[in-house]
Write a structure and sequence with these properties.
6 helices, five-stranded mixed beta sheet, globular, alpha/beta
Length: about 200
């Protein structure tokens, strides 16, 4: 079967979980995967060097990308989306914009795959219009679901006002730029954006 899918993974810490995610994905779905877009967040917690993970898979093609900005989980500024450096600092965005495949598999870096999930997804979406496969969203973690105003059945019809979204007690944000863990340690990678397939430097 042709390698029909690229993979996008955004890595913020968790190097061992990232390695298990990729190893289990390659073991179960490797025949369908062409390239892995390995996006390392610009700031990493605890001096983590996730880039070394890719070296454990010498037979797999990786595109290493380090965005110029660290946007964390905060809402993005729509006024800045025309700025390529800003836009491609959004998780997975670089892969979305540069893949040459019609399908992109997006994964977290803390998953354990036990079957060929990609083949199952491809079978499911063949010949249909789709935005994804499976349960879309995180209803279990959404204040609109808790309030009973939105669900998987009506999420396309629900449109909260700006005020409703702003006052939710269920949302909380951390500013990871203010967390200083081992700040006297040198960074494991340079703080410049790069798209590279050269892993010798790692």
């Amino acid at each position: 079967m042709a390698r029909r899918v690229d993979v996008a993974i955004s890595v913020y810490g968790k190097p061992f979980q990232t390695a298990v995610t990729l190893a289990s994905l390659f073991e179960n779905c490797g025949s369908l995967i062409d390239k892995v877009y390995f996006q390392e967040e610009l700031n990493q917690p605890h001096g983590t060097c996730p880039s070394r993970v890719a070296g454990a898979f010498p037979d797999q093609a990786f595109i290493r990308y380090i965005p110029k900005r660290f946007l964390s989980w905060h809402a993005n500024d729509p006024a800045k989306l025309s700025d390529t450096d800003y836009r491609q600092s959004i998780r997975y965005q670089y892969a979305w914009e540069t893949t040459n495949k019609q399908k992109l598999f997006v994964t977290h870096n803390d998953c354990l795959y036990s079957s060929d999930i990609i083949a199952g997804m491809l079978e499911r979406i063949e010949g249909t219009q789709y935005s994804g496969v499976g349960l879309i969203g995180q209803c279990w973690n959404c204040p609109a679901s808790t309030a009973g105003v939105c669900s998987r059945e009506n999420y396309l019809a629900y449109s909260p006002t700006y005020d409703e979204a702003q006052v939710s007690p269920h949302f909380f944000w951390f500013d990871f730029n203010e967390i200083r863990v081992g700040s006297d340690q040198p960074p494991c990678i340079s703080a410049e954006a790069s798209a590279s397939t050269d892993f010798k430097e790692w």
